[in-house]
Design brief:
The protein contains three helices and two strands. The chain has 61 residues and is mainly α.
Length: 61
């Protein structure tokens, strides 16, 4: 893997580890975008809730 890929993987790992934290901490740390468009705070919170729900279903927790 190249350095750029490693950095993306590190960011993803860090993001996933932060999912149990409150929304505000994650929003402060990461710029959430879809198709290059930044998400509003409300959209970011909805996205985080969606991710948590999906991960919970996938991991059966």
């Amino acid at each position: 893997m190249d350095g750029k890929t490693n950095k993306k993987n590190e960011n993803l790992d860090q993001f996933l580890q932060m999912l149990p934290l409150n929304d505000q901490k994650i929003i402060e740390k990461f710029k959430l975008t879809i198709d290059g468009k930044p998400l509003s705070k409300k959209e970011s919170v909805q996205f985080l809730r969606f991710l948590r729900k999906e991960l919970k279903e996938v991991t059966n927790q």
